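Below is a filled-in request sheet from our internal design queue. Each sheet records the structural input a requester submitted and the sequence that came back. We keep these sheets so that new team members can see what a complete request looks like end to end.

REQUESTER: design group, bay 2
PRIORITY: normal
MODE: inverse folding
CHAIN LENGTH: 74
BACKBONE (tokenized):
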């Protein structure tokens, strides 16, 4: 799940990183991680089944929040 700034270059190689204006959470093989450089493993137990994506357009930031308890994930 993710969100990207409108200004992200969509041609050529894309780096999935907040530094590049792209915020992505990946769930693979039972592990949730934020795709930063290097990836940031997240230790959440249990792993959230619903995630809210909050976008602050004025600040150019994205945040992921657990819909279960309202806790910020990343």
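RETURNED SEQUENCE:
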């Amino acid at each position: 799940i993710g969100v990207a700034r409108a200004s992200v270059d969509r041609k050529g190689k894309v780096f999935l990183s907040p530094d590049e204006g792209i915020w992505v959470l990946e769930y693979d093989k039972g592990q949730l991680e934020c795709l930063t450089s290097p990836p940031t493993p997240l230790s959440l137990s249990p792993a959230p089944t619903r995630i809210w994506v909050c976008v602050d357009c004025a600040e150019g930031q994205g945040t992921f929040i657990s819909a279960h308890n309202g806790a910020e994930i990343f």
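SHEET NOTES:
- The longest strand covers residues 22-28.
- The chain has one domain: 2-6+15-66.
FILED BY: M.R.
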